[in-house]
Amino acid sequence: MPRKKLVGEEAWKNIGGMYELKDLIEHKILLPLQNRELAEKHGVIIPKTILLFGPPGTGKTIFARAIAKRLGWSLIGISSIDIRSGCYGERAKGVQQLMEDLRRKSKTVIFFDELEELVRRRTKEASDVDRQVTNEFLRQLPELRKTEDILVVCATNYVEQMDPAALRPGRFDYIMPVDLPDFDARKEVFRIRLKNMVVGDMNLEALAKETEGFTPADIVEVCNRVAQMGFEKEYFQKEEYAATTEDFIKVIRQHEPTVSEEGLAKFKEAKKEFGRAIY
Ligand SMILES: Nc1ncnc2c1ncn2[C@@H]1O[C@H](COP(=O)(O)OP(=O)(O)O)[C@@H](O)[C@H]1O
Ligand SMILES: [Mg+2]
């Protein structure tokens, strides 16, 4: 049987580290989608819906974009907050309309961001509208799953705020945590961002060591600040300037990481409770 390779390898290269998650996505999601017949021959269930969860700034959006690139498919991004505010029509009706439209797509990654807004817990205190929106989305998702050649990628920073029914088997094929970067991944995130900066000899090990607990977004923010500093130095001092390791360390030490200890503890809990990915 013919074997089709993935495309857009540079999309993976722009994501530093995260090798386990890349491997998982490649083997369990992208290759079966790209090689449907061969996968079905072996009884593999073709994945249709995945959920990425993790603290803000860990790379959920960059992964969703990279997934589309690696398949060579188009990407549609849908903000759950827009749905909630009625951009697609009256709440539950808007969800229904939108999902019907999406069923006509082909070779498309459909990215729902901030999913917790769409499937809020149906508690006693929840408003009728909230409950109706959650109901409608949960009703429509299995319908959308019947469409060929689409992949629904959902992302949330707050998986614990989602209605538990959304997390039961049958709705998502994989529920995958997106972790904080480890030492090597942090080095890679720096290396990638540094390519577009003017820097001297850099001690990436030292930078990675100083940034334990930082998200990639925190690291990007540090780099942006050093970039601005270098630009201003060269402009005002009228001589060439290359940023140093010490410049970075100074900025790192002033930066408050996004994820607090409490936030990290919550994420670890959520991983135990909701993570449903086979490594
Ligand atoms: N592993 C990574 N390597 C390099 N840059 C990354 C990585 N993960 C995230 N980024 C960058 O960090 C920022 C935040 O990532 P994003 O995907 O928006 O996070 P999230 O959607 O989880 O909040 C973006 O600028 C993104 O390009
Ligand atoms: Mg995002």
Structural overview:
The protein has 279 residues and is of the alpha/beta class. Helices cover 50% and strands 10% of the residues. The chain has a 5-stranded parallel sheet with strand order 2-3-4-1-5. Strand 3, helix 7 (128-145) and strand 4 (150-156) form a beta-alpha-beta unit. It starts with 8 loop residues before the first helix and ends in a 5-residue tail after the last helix.
- Give helix % range: 40-55%
- Give the cofactors and ligands: adenosine-5'-diphosphate, magnesium ion
Radius of gyration: 21 Å
Strand portion, in percent? 5-15%
Provide the structure class.
alpha/beta
Question: How far apart are the first and last residues' alpha carbons, in Å?
Answer: 26 Å
- CATH T-level fold name of the largest domain: Rossmann fold
Number of E-state strands? 5
Largest beta sheet: what is the strand line-up? 2-3-4-1-5
Low-confidence stretches: none
Question: Helical segment tally?
Answer: 12
CATH superfamily of the largest domain: P-loop containing nucleotide triphosphate hydrolases
Q: How many domains comprise the coordinates?
A: 2
The succession of helices and strands, N to C, reads: HHHEHEHHEHEEHHHHH
> What would you call the shape?
globular
Mean pLDDT: 94
Name of the CATH first level of the largest domain: Alpha Beta
What is the CATH architecture term of the largest domain?
3-Layer(aba) Sandwich
